Amino acid sequence: MTDTVTLKPDALHSRVVAILTKAGFHAAQAAAIARVIVAGERDACKSHGIYRIEGVLRTVKAGKVRPDVVPKLAQSEASAIVKVDAKGGFSNAAFELGVPVLAERARHFGIAALAINDCTHFAALWPEVEALTDQGLAGFAMCPSYATVAPAGGTAPLLGTNPFAFGWPRIDNPPYVFDFATSVAARGEIELHRRAGKSLPEGWAIDAAGQPTTDPQAALAGAMLPFGGHKGSAIGTMIELLAGIMIGDFTSREALDYLGSTAFAPRHGELVVAFSPEAFASGRPGDPFARAEVLFEAIAGQGARLPSQRRFTARARAEKDGIPLTAAEVQQLDRLLELGLDAVS
Ligand code: NDP
Ligand code: PYC
Question: Is the pTM of this model over 0.85?
Fold first, then answer.
């Protein structure tokens, strides 16, 4: 008997939607959340795949997020700033509502920004920058998280794992996309190490006394470290400023104070900026997309791999053969569907 079950992405999407619907989600929120969770599994990004469903349900049960609301677009005809009020729901439906307007404004002005406020965000950011590259736009996305990362030289959690993603459209290839936490690793990775009983690599975290640790439990009670020392610390701080303070939303510290626990998905805002490469390159020599190809070929020509290549390979495999899940993961999906919010404490 095999320990692995293979599901087509559509079949997994239906299962996740059913779980969320039973838990009281509005159809637009359920479908949008399920899309990013399934995309995480399809692209072999387990830290933001189905394991996040429990956290989503826990956050609903604690009354820290509203599953039944519909996000609202704040229209401002002449502005390059598009605003969406998530109304205390998850970010995913709010992003899906705002992105067509963001793309239209970016084409019109050459650059435009989408600010999402009052949302709970638990997901990877690459689906969001890919929504821009799919439309021939470049762009980046960023958001705070909750205070779990010590600034470089500090000893206590203050910054979030604050992800940053960038995408550039390519002509006959998948886009150039990178997406990473500004901590050494995403917090989801620490949790997956804890669940698997594995030690962390050195340099990921400090314990509650500020001492280096490889014990995931001690790391969760202490603080994670920024990637690249003072450089990651500064980028994490920039994200607090632009995607927290500047858009009038929570910093990671404030998000944790609001939640009172990292057991829930974090609530804050998000900033997405879209660029039209044609508009910026207009009047200058060379086609920006052709010139970008020269750069990518030069990178690959040295034997280096482009970011997201692993993901795109996993995606192609999953689209052909289905998404492999362990029997335990399938049982957990069945349990979440049967028990709904009673499945989580
Ligand atoms: P990883 O370190 O796993 O990957 C970072 C990026 O680097 C990916 O684009 C990856 O591409 C690329 N990459 C990895 N190895 C190489 C290599 N050898 N050469 C070239 N590129 C490489 O990401 P993190 O653990 O930091 O983050 C994982 C996810 O967690 C992200 O999607 C992020 O958005 C999410 N996150 C979300 C948060 C939130 O609050 N919503 C908070 C923190 C993180 P590939 O995937 O192909 O390997
Ligand atoms: O993996 O660090 C993380 C994370 C925090 C919130 C969502 N993902």
Answer: yes
